[in-house]
Amino acid sequence: MKTLRQLLCVASVSLPLFASPHLQAETALSIGLIPSEDSQSMIESSQLVLDQLQSQLGMPVKPFVATDYNGVIEALRSKKLDVAYLGPFSYVLANQIADAEAFAVAVTKKTGKSAYRSLIVARADSGIHSLADLNGHTFAFVDPSSTSGHLFPKAGIEQAGYAPDKLFSRVIFSGSHDASILAVINRKVDAAAVADRILNSAISSGQVKQDDLKIVWSSNDIPESPMVWRKDLDPALKQKLVTALANVKNVPWGDQGMLDGFQPTTDNAYNVVRDTAKVLDLDLSKMK
């Protein structure tokens, strides 16, 4: 059995926020953000949410974006972060190795849903119409720990009867959904796996034209990316966080769109992610 330790070659992360985790938790809330965009863009697109959260909590909120998904997980594990916004698969990993627990998911005004989908997209003029047509082409995944940018599309390819490791002539990890979309548009790769809401955001912003791309494959619903906390976080602070996030409304949050608060979630909501990992013969039990 392959283990996820192969996916989790975690670089050491230095977060010079405060002298100790205990002091940090008392004086400010440190929050990690997955790098679905470049670091500066991720912080900028989250700023209004962070400002509202800071106002609701009555304490400073310090954001941090690692260079990859696993950097945020490692920062949680080493207690340099209190809270993080993670993808579903990176949350499952964080639950295993960083004692993290999902507690809330964003609800958007546009969809009223707390779920999204993974897509495989290609240029409209590529001649690629199905998974079979991907044979021998180049492909971009996002990150080994990305749910919609790696785990679900790779499992979907396998469930359709194709060997993901043999289907493509070349595979890259782009580092972000935006980068994968642009790699397809700019003919750096022939197809890529991306989150539907990030593709929709890129189209809405004019970054790409809808007619330039076609959807080759779509997953079933994936539980939305959760907000997670370290289980050892102060219980009083946990309760304040739940209340504060529920009241974060009427502000845009990157590809999520206009927020209508955060609703509670639990670890069990992500069992579908664990089941999908099993399709790829990934043994989550060996992560600790």
Topology of helices and strands:
Elements: E1 2-3, H1 21-27, E2 29-33, H2 39-57, E3 61-65, H3 69-77, E4 83-85, H4 88-97, E5 100-108, E6 115-116, E7 118-123, E8 138-141, H5 147-159, H6 164-167, E9 170-173, H7 177-185, E10 191-195, H8 196-204, E11 213-218, E12 222-223, E13 226-230, H9 235-246, E14 249-252, E15 258-264, H10 271-279, E16 282-283
Rg over CA atoms, rounded to whole Å, is: 19 Å
**Average predicted confidence as pLDDT:** 86
Distance between the termini: 16 Å
CATH-defined topology of the largest domain: D-Maltodextrin-Binding Protein, domain 2
Helix content class: 25-40%
Which percent range describes the beta-strand content? 15-25%
- Widest β-sheet, arrangement of strands: 3-2-4-13-5-15-14
How many β-strands, per DSSP? Answer: 16
Please tell me the total number of domains. Answer: 2
**Class computed from helices, strands and strand pairing:** alpha/beta
The dominant shape is globular
Give the number of helices. 10
CATH class of the largest domain: Alpha Beta
CATH architecture of the largest domain: 3-Layer(aba) Sandwich
